[in-house]
Amino acid sequence: MNPGEEILAMARKFISGDDRSMGFIASMEKVVVENLPDSDMFEFLAEGISLYRPWAGAPYWSEGDMVQLMEDFVQEFGGSEKS
Questions:
Q1: pLDDT in tens, 61-76
Q2: Phi, psi of 22 (to 5 degrees)
Q3: Residue 49: is its pLDDT beyond 50?
Q4: CA 10, CA 70: separation in Å to the nearest integer?
Q5: Residue 10's closest CA among 45, 38, 40?
Q6: Tens digits of per-residue pLDDT, 1-42?
Q7: Radius of gyration of the CA atoms of the chain, in A
Q8: Any idea what the Cα angle at residue 53 is, between residues 52 and 55, rounded to 5°?
Q9: Where residue 82 falls among pLDDT bands split at 50, 70, 90?
Q10: Residues with Cβ < 8 Å from 19, sequence gap 6 or more?
Q11: Burial code of 50-69, b = ≥16 C-beta within 10 A, e = fewer?
């Protein structure tokens, strides 16, 4: 699986609720930073991934904010592929 496919699969896992932990987001960040640093995918995800703190309140991103970001990401980069 290439890094783009891997991050899309991870986004779908987050959306499904299978894993919404900080550790999972850190693993997503690692894939994006190490493999996709100069890509549109990186630009799309960077802010949300860096600000995800579901318990912290503003200015951090909530779980709902991240679900929306991941849904938008899958729609933008996932084509017609289903989760």
A1: 999 999 999 999 999 9
A2: -65, -35
A3: yes
A4: 9
A5: 45
A6: 899 999 999 999 999 999 999 999 999 999 999 999 999 999
A7: 12
A8: 150
A9: very low
A10: 13
A11: eebebeeeeeebbeeebbeb
22-45: burial string, b at 16+ Cβ within 10 Å, e else: eeebeebbebbeeebeeeebeebb
The residue that leads in pLDDT, 16 or 81, is 16
CB atoms within 10 A of CB 47: 11
Between CA 24 and CA 28, with CA 19 as vertex, the angle to 5 degrees is 30
Q: Which residues are 52's β-sheet partners?
A: 61
